[in-house]
């Protein structure tokens, strides 16, 4: 794995950078397939296989769940409670999106436990997630709020006929996908850098004890950042759906 797809290796050339694995021409432009694309594909395949198995198992669901069925139902109930607690009456409309987002980000974050370079340690991944949330926020804002209410909110806290705060509020709206994506990216990348340094510089002694660091950087920090990203997403969307009517 000389291109750093895997981080947990004894290879002395290990690093935390994104590398191009292959390239091809498309409409005159050079397109690179990077380590991030490979890791995202692996994460997607794992989640797809899990989804297919869960679908097949739940077709033959038992009244008293056990084993794999119990795990799937626990995950679904946990995600439903999280979304219902944050979005209230809007939860049924967005529970599928938020649940998919949560599972994808969480598994991407903890994929370092499997030796992968977390896809969320690439800003291209987290920025795309931020843009998706940004589009969903403003789609629902224009759907549920009148133009007058949107203009009043953009001029807040002053009256709408005195739009002094409009430029500042506009910048804060534009900054939403950037702040969401940078927070997730920076926290996951920092853990990736730390683990790469441990394995790259302390190869001779990095045998068992780095597992404790993986628990923090990959599992604990990854779960926290997943929760923060999804909570902010739910908060922004719920606010966009509220109207004065």
UniProtKB/TrEMBL annotation:
One Gene Ontology term, aspect cellular component: proton-transporting ATP synthase complex
Looking up Pfam families in the UniProt record yields: ATP-synt_A
What stretches pass through the bilayer? Answer: 31-56, 94-114, 120-139, 184-209, 215-238
Q: Where mainly located? A: membrane
User: Keyword set for this entry?
Assistant: ATP synthesis, Cell membrane, CF(0), Hydrogen ion transport, Ion transport, Membrane, Transmembrane, Transmembrane helix, Transport
- GO function terms (MF aspect): proton-transporting ATP synthase activity, rotational mechanism
General function of this protein? Key component of the proton channel; it plays a direct role in the translocation of protons across the membrane.
Q: How does it sit in the membrane?
A: Multi-pass membrane protein
Q: Which NCBIfam families match?
A: ATP_synt_6_or_A
Domain of life, source organism: Bacteria
To which protein family does this belong? Answer: Belongs to the ATPase A chain family.
- Record-given protein name: ATP synthase subunit a
The record ties this protein, via InterPro entries, to:
ATP_syn_F0_a_bact/chloroplast, ATP_synth_F0_asu, ATP_synth_F0_asu_AS, F0_ATP_A_sf
One of the GO biological process terms = proton motive force-driven plasma membrane ATP synthesis
Q: Where in the cell is it found?
A: Cell membrane; Membrane
HAMAP family per UniProt: ATP_synth_a_bact
């Amino acid at each position: 794995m000389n291109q750093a797809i895997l981080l947990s290796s004894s290879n002395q050339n290990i690093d935390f950078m994104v590398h191009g694995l292959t390239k091809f021409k498309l409409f005159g432009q050079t397109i690179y397939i990077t380590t991030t694309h490979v890791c995202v594909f692996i994460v997607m395949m794992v989640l797809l296989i899990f989804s297919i198995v869960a679908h097949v198992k739940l077709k033959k669901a038992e009244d008293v769940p056990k084993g794999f069925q119990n795990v799937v139902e626990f995950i679904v109930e946990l995600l439903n409670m999280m979304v219902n607690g944050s979005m209230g009456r809007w939860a049924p409309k967005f529970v599928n999106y938020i649940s998919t987002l949560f599972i994808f980000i969480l598994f991407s974050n903890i994929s370092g436990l499997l030796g992968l370079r977390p896809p969320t340690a690439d800003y291209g991944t987290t920025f795309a997630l931020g843009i998706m949330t940004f589009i969903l926020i403003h789609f629902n804002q224009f759907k549920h709020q009148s133009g007058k209410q949107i203009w009043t909110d953009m001029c807040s806290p002053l009256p709408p006929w005195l739009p002094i705060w409009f430029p500042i509020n506009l910048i804060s709206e534009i900054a939403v996908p950037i702040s969401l994506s940078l927070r997730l990216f920076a926290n996951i990348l920092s853990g990736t850098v730390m683990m790469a340094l441990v394995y790259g510089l302390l190869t001779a002694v990095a045998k068992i004890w780095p597992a404790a660091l993986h628990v923090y950087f990959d599992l604990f920090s990854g779960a926290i950042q997943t929760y923060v990203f999804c909570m902010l997403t739910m908060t922004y969307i719920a606010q966009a759906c509220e109207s004065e009517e």
